[in-house]
């Protein structure tokens, strides 16, 4: 009787419970870890599970620069922008000239795992899909309020749902 009483000691049970919870949290952290090392301000371009390149904001700045004035009718109401960026097609060409011919669509992903898609025909349409890195000449704010994130702008989407904010990867399919 005393033995069983000792084994079911509430303190011991509590200790075991805490250990178990810590273990479960560790397992989830491990499962959710970012296998690709994605970071805001860097854009990973991949296809068929292979990394084709990583472009930083500085790399993007070296590509042909386009300024786009636009009004977006998004969740925060009407917002005015004067984005600086480069056409997505030019970004792809800078990695490999064949990409725009070889693939049909691109899945865009933000640091928050928001994903959206654009077809290659939309990307190849002039003045339509841009990779932007500044607004009114200032670096775009990261999800945590820091400086220097990247965003996708799709000009024929006036509501902005398909704009991927905090862009970190492009997967060609
Ligand atoms: N990374 C990321 N991009 C995103 C979203 C999101 O949740 N995460 N929401 C989309 C949706 S549904 C809308 S309406 C717009 C909202 O843009 P805003 O947050 O700049 O107002 O962003 C789009 N891009
Ligand atoms: Mo939205």
TrEMBL record:
<keyword id="KW-0472">Membrane</keyword>
<dbReference type="Pfam" id="PF00174">
    <property type="entry name" value="Oxidored_molyb"/>
</dbReference>
<keyword id="KW-0812">Transmembrane</keyword>
<dbReference type="InterPro" id="IPR036374">
    <property type="entry name" value="OxRdtase_Mopterin-bd_sf"/>
</dbReference>
<keyword id="KW-1133">Transmembrane helix</keyword>
<dbReference type="InterPro" id="IPR000572">
    <property type="entry name" value="OxRdtase_Mopterin-bd_dom"/>
</dbReference>
<feature type="domain" description="Oxidoreductase molybdopterin-binding">
    <location>
        <begin position="55"/>
        <end position="146"/>
    </location>
</feature>
<protein>
    <submittedName>
        <fullName>Molybdopterin-dependent oxidoreductase</fullName>
    </submittedName>
</protein>
<feature type="transmembrane region" description="Helical">
    <location>
        <begin position="13"/>
        <end position="31"/>
    </location>
</feature>
């Amino acid at each position: 009787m005393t033995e069983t009483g000792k084994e079911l000691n509430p303190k011991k049970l509590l200790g075991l419970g805490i250990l178990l919870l810590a273990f479960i949290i560790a397992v989830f952290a491990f499962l959710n870890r970012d296998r690709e090392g994605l970071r805001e301000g860097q854009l990973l371009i991949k296809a068929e599970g292979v990394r084709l390149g990583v472009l930083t904001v500085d790399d993007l700045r070296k590509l042909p620069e386009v300024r786009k004035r636009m009004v977006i009718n998004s969740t925060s109401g009407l917002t005015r922008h004067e984005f600086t960026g480069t056409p997505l097609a030019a970004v792809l060409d800078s990695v490999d000239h064949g990409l725009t011919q070889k693939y049909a669509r691109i899945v865009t992903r933000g640091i928050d795992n928001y994903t959206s898609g654009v077809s290659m025909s939309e990307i190849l349409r002039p003045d339509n899909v841009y990779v932007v890195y500044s607004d009114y000449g200032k670096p775009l704010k990261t999800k945590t309020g820091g400086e220097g994130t990247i965003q996708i702008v799709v000009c024929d989407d006036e509501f902005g749902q398909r704009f991927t904010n905090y862009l970190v990867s492009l997967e060609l399919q």
